[in-house]
From TrEMBL, chains A, B:
It holds the Pfam family TetR_N. It comes from Streptomyces lucensis JCM 4490. Keywords: DNA-binding, Transcription, Transcription regulation. It comes from the Bacteria. Residues 29-48 bind DNA. One of its GO terms (molecular function) is DNA binding. Residues 6-66 form the HTH tetR-type domain. This is TetR family transcriptional regulator. The lineage of its organism: Bacteria, Bacillati, Actinomycetota, Actinomycetes, Kitasatosporales. Coiled coil: none annotated. InterPro entries: Homeodomain-like_sf, HTH_TetR, Tet_transcr_reg_TetR-rel_C_sf, YxaF_TetR_C. The keyword Ribosomal protein does not apply.
Amino acid sequence: MTEERRGPRERMVFSAAQLIRRDGVAATGMREVAAHAGAPRGSLQHYFPGGKEQLVNEAVGWAGRYAGARIARFVSGLDAPSPSALFAAMAGQWTREYAADGFAAGCPVAAATVDRASACTSTREAAAAAFAAWRDPLAEALTGMGVPGSRAGALATLMISTLEGAIILARAEADAGPLHTVVSELGPLLDSAVVPPG
Amino acid sequence: MTEERRGPRERMVFSAAQLIRRDGVAATGMREVAAHAGAPRGSLQHYFPGGKEQLVNEAVGWAGRYAGARIARFVSGLDAPSPSALFAAMAGQWTREYAADGFAAGCPVAAATVDRASACTSTREAAAAAFAAWRDPLAEALTGMGVPGSRAGALATLMISTLEGAIILARAEADAGPLHTVVSELGPLLDSAVVPPG
DNA sequence: CCGCTACTATGACCACTGTCATAACCGGTT
DNA sequence: AACCGGTTATGACAGTGGTCATAGTAGCGG
């Protein structure tokens, strides 16, 4: 997960996303980001002349692209592709992280939205773009599984909404129960949207 | 919504919840809470000797009790009680607010979780209690509609998760679309859990 | 009047934030 | 050697945060 080969700029964006998803935007300091990335403090104003707002927005964008890229890998990793299996894989990433590292962190896009949506228009738009970068590949994957194009987008929105909410509940309860619950409860609905290929 | 009859202490808790759900915990200042509540600044340390942590926790608890109490009112307001209608009513409260006042605010419990879950154990526990105070009446309402007790809790968790996530997506997109989407997509699943009274 | 309690008022403190100004370094090219 | 753009290094600034200390007021029973 932590590639050391990347340049300091990309490391700072990555570190910002990590810290934001753990502590929120306001509680994450610029100096803290540089320290976490092992980057010099002076590089902050060099790479991010737009200040914290730019750094946060890039971290949110990175997270959205990351989530979108994960979809294809989840799909290819399924032995029996189905919407419910894909959703289970998406949630499984979180249950594994929570089992391994504790319930310290959530989704950085959600954190940015909660913290900055009403105060910073550019960050809100970055969050919207990140969710779109996540939803579109997801909807495409659903259509590839036989979900009609007219419903794929709506189901993708439903899946992301439910997952984001379950992440919050799981963190609050310090228990992965909500993640397991939504996977098992939502699965049948997702699979029922698949139109038989016949 | 803004009762002026309540004492300064309760007004400050209420104002804290309002500001938290708009700006997040870290970006909400104590002085700002007092000013918003029209309460003297000196009252903060008098009513909340535990400092910001206590104020935030009480605001979260208040929000949880508020959400739980709303459930009964939603149920009694439905002309044809059904799980999907209840869920639509819950989401409708948000779509109405967003249509009337813009997408400025989200759920204070979610904001507290995102901002403080990893930094403040007591706040995380307060959030968990708030979600429980919301989920339990919801599950009870579902059983009253014919949902088996074994599934009511899981469906309540699913409904809250999905609603919380849809709120975040709606704020990010500044569009109530996700709220409408999850209501229409989740409705059939919710109603299919009702066991016919026969 | 006193004493007591509940509440309010205000100023100070220290830690910390994001941002900026400025200077140094460092690997090349000329 | 000089020069240069791309980086890094530091220190300072102004603002804000939560918190504390201290003093003040209001009301009331005695």
